[in-house]
What we know:
This is Two component transcriptional regulator, LuxR family. This protein has ten helices and nine strands.
Amino acid sequence: MAAVGLSQAVRSTPAGALPASMVPHPREELFSVLVVDDHPLLREAIAARLAQMGAGTVHEAATVAEARARASATGPCDLAILDLGLPDGSGIELVTELRSSGWPRVVVLASSDDPYAVRSAFQAGAQAYLLKSASPVVVTDGVRRVLEGGVYADPSVAPVLATGTRVAGTDNTPRELSAREVEVLQLVADGQSNKEIGEELSLSALTVKSHLSRIGRKLGTGDRAQMVALAMRAGVIR
Length: 238
């Protein structure tokens, strides 16, 4: 059976057939979309809703590999909607790749409300994070907001973003960690040494040690395991 991502789903809708209130795109022409998800029925449902909103062309892919092939063949579409839990790779990495390749808008539609996944998606360049369990109204609102140039977070994950990268230290006082400090802590959690972390982030081992010392002062502990535990509890790392 031919791979879904290698066939194009095209839904052309006359511009005058839809009420103006249902066409969220700020321009007059129809918009193009890439939908990436490994569940065919969900892709069909998303494509149908996008067609109702004014999508002219909907490309589909079921895997990271198919998404890359489709993106390479079509060039940047107006919008990409993708799942994070793809069978052959990282959805977060795909977000980064699409954004660096000139894709202007990326919406994540995920099954998880994990704080780390939510923050990682936005840090990678996504403009919206929606849950698959969300109502059609929420999904439509999120897509519309992004097409109009804004950002959107599912109401149930919005509090995660409000906390930023704050971690409660040993005295229970929240401390703000920098993006680099979060990266270092994540690699510590992955079991990497200072030297290995330095190689991963193109830093010297001494600089990594300085980051860890600064993290320790913020969190009130110099113990690597305790720093990791505090960050995990706050949902800053996984």
